């Protein structure tokens, strides 16, 4: 299973959490240049997965609205 496949099983919130972990490690200054490059590459992949997931949800909401889907519940 590839990293992309692994990312496909994570929720949007889990993707954001992973992105925060990666950026925190890079910002710590406690990693070497090779590891920093690996972390940067993974962060880009995670960011793209989160962006795509968000776009898919936005499209779904727009389709529901266009189809006269249910109105949000009153709070």
- Rg, Å, rounded: 17 Å
> Total helix count?
3
Strand count, sense and barrel status of the largest sheet are: none
User: What order do the helices and strands follow?
Assistant: HHH
The low-confidence runs, each spanning 5 or more residues with pLDDT under 50, are: none
Gross geometry: elongated
Q: Averaging pLDDT over every residue, what do you get? A: 89
Strand content: under 5%
Question: Helix proportion of residues, in percent?
Answer: over 70%
Structural features, described:
With 75 residues, the chain is mainly alpha-helical. The chain is 76% helix and 0% strand. It has three helices and no strands. The chain has helices at residues 3-8, 12-28, 33-66. Helix 2 packs antiparallel against helix 3. The mean pLDDT is 89.
Q: What keywords describe this structure?
A:
single chain, 75 residues, mainly alpha, elongated
Write the layout of secondary structure elements.
Layout: H1 3-8, H2 12-28, H3 33-66
Short characterization:
The chain is 76% helix and 0% strand. The protein has 75 residues and is mainly α.
């Amino acid at each position: 299973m590839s990293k992309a496949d692994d990312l496909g099983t994570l929720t949007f919130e889990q993707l954001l959490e992973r992105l925060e972990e990666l950026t925190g490690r890079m910002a710590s200054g406690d990693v070497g240049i090779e590891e920093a490059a690996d972390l940067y590459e993974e962060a880009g992949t995670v960011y793209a997965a989160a962006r795509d997931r968000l776009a898919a949800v936005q499209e779904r909401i727009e389709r529901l609205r266009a189809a006269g889907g249910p109105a949000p519940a009153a709070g």
